[in-house]
Write a structure and sequence with these properties.
With 436 residues, this protein is an all-alpha fold. It contains 21 helices and no strands. The protein is globular, with a radius of gyration of 22 Å.
């Protein structure tokens, strides 16, 4: 079979299965089994497929995925996340749009702690949006900051998506995790500047109100009680990797243990909470691991069908500058993000894009962070970004989807600005990973 026919068969079959409502993991498994039988030697290929999937899931490099998911479940199920929001609220003080800025600070902080964007949208949406509406805030500075900052969980470590991407692309997990720190912080800074500038130009979006005065001693007490311990968790995960104290697997395990101990110290851990944490972690990790194993098998199936090599040869032979191919790949990821889940995008795009990136001579770590920036945008990209629908579920009654779309667009433009910066100045990504 010609390589382009094999490619049409693989992706066409995959799209058909996914449009029927079949879960992403099972759609991939189905097309992989069929494709393996056709392109990989029938029953012998199926035996090799099972061995490949077993070896994939037995890799210790996948441990951070499970540990980061466990961290997120502990933070949210135990309610520790609300303590962070309360502490940050006391430190922000009496400034215009303080609740919008609180949403950005809390979203960034929870992203650093949990690495899960969807749960952050739900938590901040239910905790802050009702208060914002009560204070007369309008949707551009109510819904937008939550949607924008929650997506940072895809970039800033601990990022389960970063681990998945690095594992599937066969690049350094530690460098991908550390490489996302600076772009993520630049995004959070742009969100903050946008809110401040927008509210200076249109003060009616965030009416001023009398916030309770908090003494310096109370701020220090709250920071020591609710921010510093969580900062230690951040150091356990990120700091130990940067300073070479621990591998990503060791750091993720230390972070999960730290979250568990902290939840006990706060009196937030009991049998019911522990049950919800373990059940939520098991379900999510099980599905993610199936998807990862299917992704590796999918990559090998593309290679055996000849589609990967032929597609790379075709792309390299095009009479265009290589950077235009980078831009085209980013547009494809953004387009997929309008309709698909981030993990599904990784499964489809990584087996094709990363061999091409290496063939073109670009740094795969650099492109991995670009990929994560795209994935950060995916859940908030209209019309079908998952975060948009979660926000619709927690937003006040009467909030329309067009309102949510309009609130998300300025923050997507901030993300796009960071993406352009990263393309023009790769050192924004590479200097920190290369120094660890």
């Amino acid at each position: 079979m010609e390589w382009w026919l094999a490619l049409i068969f693989i992706f066409g079959g995959l799209m058909i299965m996914m449009t029927t409502g079949m879960p992403v993991a099972f759609s991939f498994l189905s097309i992989i089994i069929i494709g393996t039988y056709l392109f990989w030697g029938g029953q012998k290929g199926l035996m090799l497929l099972s061995l490949t999937m077993f070896r994939t899931l037995a890799s210790y490099k996948l441990l951070p995925v499970a540990m980061f998911i466990l961290m997120g479940e502990i933070i949210f199920q135990s309610g520790i996340g609300f303590k962070l929001i309360d502490a940050l609220d006391k430190w922000i003080g009496k400034i215009r749009a303080r609740l919008s800025l609180l949403a950005i600070a809390s979203g960034t902080g929870l992203s650093v702690l949990t690495g899960t964007s969807m749960a952050t949208v739900g938590l901040l949406g239910s905790a802050l949006v009702p208060e914002m509406i009560k204070r007369g805030y309008k949707s551009p500075v109510t819904l937008g900051p939550i949607l924008g900052s929650s997506g940072l969980a895809s970039i800033i470590p601990p990022s389960a998506m970063g681990v998945i991407l690095a594992f599937v692309a066969q690049v350094s997990v530690a460098k991908v995790l550390i490489g996302g720190i600076l772009p993520g912080l630049i995004m959070a800074t742009l969100y903050t500047l946008y809110i401040i500038l927008r509210c200076q130009i249109q003060p009616h979006l965030a009416p001023a109100y009398d916030a309770p005065t908090v003494s310096l001693s109370e701020k220090i007490k709250s920071g020591a009680r609710d921010i510093v311990p969580l900062g230690l968790i951040v150091f356990l995960v990120t700091g130990t990797i940067i300073f070479g104290i621990a591998t990503p697997s060791e750091a993720s395990a230390a972070g999960a243990l730290g979250c568990f101990i902290l939840s006990i110290a706060y009196g937030r851990m009991n049998r019911e909470v522990l049950k919800r944490v373990l059940m939520g972690t098991t379900k999510l990790v099980g599905m993610v691991f199936i998807i990862i194993a299917a992704s590796i098998a999918f990559s090998q199936m593309l290679a055996f069908s000849g589609a990967s090599k032929s597609l790379i040869d075709l792309a390299i032979g095009l009479p265009v500058h290589p950077i235009l191919l980078i831009v085209a790949m980013n547009f494809i990821i953004l387009f997929l993000g309008m309709f698909m889940d981030s993990v599904a995008i990784v499964m489809i795009a990584v087996p094709i894009f990363f061999p091409l990136i290496k063939a073109l001579g670009f740094d795969p770590i650099w492109f991995a962070i670009l990929f994560l920036v795209n994935l950060e945008m995916a859940p908030t990209t209209p019309p079908y970004g998952m975060a948009l629908f979660i926000m619709k579920g927690v937003a006040p009654k009467g909030t329309t989807m067009p309102e949510i779309y309009k609130a998300a667009i300025p923050f997507l433009l901030c993300d796009l600005a960071v993406m352009i910066l990263v393309i023009l100045f790769p050192s924004l990504i590479l200097w920190l990973p290369n120094s660890i």
